[in-house]
UniProtKB/TrEMBL annotation:
Keywords: Membrane, Transmembrane, Transmembrane helix. It is found in: Membrane. This is Tryptophan-rich sensory protein. It is a multi-pass membrane protein.
Amino acid sequence: MRPATLAKTGAAALTTAVVGGLASRPAQSAWYASLRKPSFQPPRQAFPIVWPILYADIAAVSANAIDSLTEQGRRDEAKTFAGLLALNLVLNGSWSWLFFNQRKLGTSAIAAGALAASSADLTRRAVAVNGASAAPLGLYPLWCAFATALSTRIWMLNR
C-alpha cells in the first residue's frame, strides 16, 4: 500500500474517532447513568481499547484495497470503495451524536444497523480484492452488529 493512501484513510479514521469521542463525552452524564442497560453491556473501559484497534484496521485494510484496485486498473471500483468508506465513517461518527447528544435511542439503533451493514459490505469488498489479508476487517462488522444489538436493547429498555 502507498503511504499517501494510508495517510488519507488514516486521517479519515482519526477524524471519525475524534468526532465520535467528542460526541461520547456525555457517557459520563447523569442521563446516561440513568438509562437501563442490558446485562451484556461491556464495561466502559472496553470502548477505548476496541475502537482504536478497529480504526487502525479500517485505515490499513481500506488503503490496501484502494491501492490494489488502482494498481489493477480498476479505478472506478477504487473510487467507489473510497466513497463507501467515507459513507461508513459518517455513519460511524453519527451514531455517537444521535445517541449521546441527541438522545435519540431508536434512531441510533437504526443507525447502528446501517453501520453494521455498511461495515459488512466494506469487508466483503476488501476481501474480494485482497483475500485473507483483508479478513481482519471482519471484526468491524461483528463489533457493529454487537453495537446494534446493544443499542436496540437500550432503546427497548428505556422506551
